[in-house]
């Protein structure tokens, strides 16, 4: 079973113009939703490129393990599955020694363009960016070209790294990274 996530990002896009372009191209509009996430790390905080995430979106909660293994579009291992009881899942992880580190939110508007999922993400206090996820780097390059995105500006760092390094938001020291609570 392949658990490789193939994705890239383009920072600081014009959200309304991109939505118009996607609609003009006939992309399937999957809607917009506020994602509620709980980020969880190992007890000793030795994980630098790994995390667990509980994400609630559209009434479903997904537990994901993500491990950044390289600085490429194909550089993240991801294993995820739906959980029926998010509170019990968080309690179980706590009992196993994992530490819930941060509550976070982002507004996501998703589209399906051929074989690529296009996620337009807006985080608190961060300019909107677009994430392309698909079956291959070639499909991502094709989608980027179709959308008028310059592959020379592709961002391969994780969202956490971008938020911390580009926008100087100290996520490692925050418990709340939400639209109404930022501390």
Question: Would you kindly provide a written description of the structure presented here, covering whatever features stand out?
Answer:
- It is globular, with a radius of gyration of 16 Å.
- By secondary structure, it is an alpha+beta fold.
- Strands 1, 2, 3, 4, 5, 6, 7, 8, 9 and 10 form a ten-stranded mixed beta sheet that branches.
- The protein has one domain: Hypothetical Protein Pfu-838710-001 (Beta Barrel), CATH 2.40.320.
- The chain contains four helices and ten strands; from the N terminus they run E-E-H-E-E-E-E-H-E-E-E-H-H-E.
- The chain is 20% helix and 40% strand.
Tell me the name of the CATH class: Mainly Beta
CATH architecture: Beta Barrel
Work out the count of structural domains: 1
Order of helices and strands: EEHEEEEHEEEHHE
By DSSP (H or I, 4+ residues per run), the number of helices equals 4
What is the CA–CA distance across the termini? Answer: 39 Å
CATH fold field value: Hypothetical Protein Pfu-838710-001
Instruction: Name the CATH superfamily assignment.
Output: Hypothetical Protein Pfu-838710-001
Estimated radius of gyration: 16 Å
């Amino acid at each position: 079973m392949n658990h490789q996530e193939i994705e890239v990002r383009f920072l600081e896009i014009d959200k309304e113009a991109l939505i118009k372009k996607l609609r003009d191209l006939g992309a399937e509009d999957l809607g917009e939703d506020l994602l509620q996430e709980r980020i969880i790390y190992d007890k000793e905080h030795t994980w630098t490129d790994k995390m667990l995430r509980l994400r609630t979106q559209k009434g479903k909660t997904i537990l994901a393990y993500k491990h950044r293994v390289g600085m490429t579009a194909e550089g993240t291992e991801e294993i995820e599955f739906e959980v029926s009881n998010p509170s019990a899942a968080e309690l179980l992880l706590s009992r196993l020694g994992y530490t819930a580190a941060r509550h976070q939110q982002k507004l996501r508007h998703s589209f399906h363009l051929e074989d690529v999922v296009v996620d337009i993400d807006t985080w608190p206090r961060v300019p909107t960016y677009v994430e392309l996820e698909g079956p291959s780097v070639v499909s991502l390059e094709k989608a980027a070209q179709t959308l008028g995105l310059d592959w020379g500006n592709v961002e391969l760092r994780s969202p956490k790294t971008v938020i911390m390094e580009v926008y100087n938001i100290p996520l490692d020291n925050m418990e709340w990274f939400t639209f109404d609570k930022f501390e």
